[in-house]
Fold these 2 entries.
Entry 1:
Amino acid sequence: MAALQYYDVILKPVLTEKSMAGMAEKKYTFLVNPEANKTQIKEAVEKMFEGAKVAKVNTINAAGKMKRRGMTVGFTAKTKKAIVQLTEDSKDIEIFQGL
């Protein structure tokens, strides 16, 4: 396994009703690389979004779902979500401002 760089850790933001409600409390949800740990996620958010200071990171691992096509059985890719809590004095993340 190659070492993950900070720009490989965060894949995309999660835009759901629940994640939008959490933005009032400075909680942001991202899909992240399944190999990334909490320290790497914290470092990636602080480097990618200037002025953001991370207080806490919670992660959720989701196993792939079983899918069938006739007799062939397989699984979808596993995913990992991270809920990032920013400190009170940090700036908001800009990509969510227009939503």
Note: The first helix runs from residue 6 to 9.
Entry 2:
Amino acid sequence: MSDFDYDLFVIGGGSGGVRAARIAATHGAKVGIAEEFRYGGTCVIRGCVPKKLFVYASKFSEEFEDAEGFGWSVGERQFSWEKLVAAKDQEITRLEGIYRRNLERTNVEPHDSRAVLEGPNTVRLLATGQTFTAKYILVAVGASPNVDDDLIGGEHVITSNEAFNLADLPQKVVVVGGGYIAVEFAGIFNGLGVDTTLMYRGDEILRGFDMDLRTAVRDEMEKKGIRVVLGDTFTEIAKKADGTLSGKTRKGAMLEADQIMHAIGRKPHTVGLGLEQAGVEMDAIGAIKVDASSKSSVPSVYAVGDVTNRANLTPVAIREGHAFADTIFGNKPWTVNHSLIATAVFSQPELGTVGLTQEEALKVTSNVDIYKSTFRPMKHTLSGRDEKMLMKIIVDADTDKVLGVHIMGPDAGELAQVLGITLEMGATKADFDRTIAVHPTAAEELVTMREPTERIRG
């Protein structure tokens, strides 16, 4: 008979925690899981899933306009924010139900409560005061939006958490930040007819992405009517008598809006979790330090997902959770490769990317060939829209290996998923060249670029 109540207790019912719990249970482990809000975590409840739904909604404004170029008379149009939010809520509720049923089907015992660590093998539920022991504890509590504690009037700012459930669609909004969330929400608000400003303290949006994509997507966003302010941020925000907000920036500008949204990064959700009491080491921002197998400084405590601040993407958390469960409970040890991850930004236009940026490639090899093409998507030859598509392939000139592929344009995220397979297999430029094109598609450009647009030699 086990000396513990559970073989595994998971703290956090997001994608990574749920996957780990289910896989561990299928390997025969007795598993408990605690979630303080709703099962599905950030991605399903207040992240990528509702965001993608909002992106779809926001794109219809342009789709209606483009239809006229193809002979359609669309007629009068009207948008209801209330209907969109209600439809989103219905879908999120459906998805949460699936998460719960999947846990039940694998005999994982759910606890609807916040759980904290009482020691290396003990957790306590705050809702009931119950304590449970577990041979292993997995922390998968994710991350939460950063707030600027030094900002005067910061209490008037919303984050992505609140943006999904605003009572009314603002007429004027300022989104602060330059990453995934900020850029995506700027596109959402703009597409829904909101006067939108994106303000970022850095010199270019989307830090960490290839510079050509960064500048190209900003240019396209500005064409769509989004005002992009770089090198500045708010120092003070005041709420006026009519409920609108007035913000003063570091450079002395004054911006007014109905809502100001901060998307200035996320931090691991570890405050008050009892990690210090259990002896778990964390870094300067509160992320749990783990090794390649997701084990913390305490042998019985593991962590996966955004709480570790490795690669903060839902599919990565799922893979980490699966690897942990297979390794500990399934006698099938493996680890996640974080070096090659395909990803997408659902900006407008969309970005899809896999592998190294040009800047990163030049740090690992001195000889690089760049293949780049900028063109007008076929759709817009009739729609008349002034929007460009960008494709870029980065190749190691010494080995012919494709180091990175970066795309801006329709369905870029879908393309990135397939390209991720080819780069994971070690594809060369010659492999691309001998692949027959699918015509007429935008993707054929990937296999028809023959001569480098730039040769860089060390």
Note: The mean pLDDT is 96.
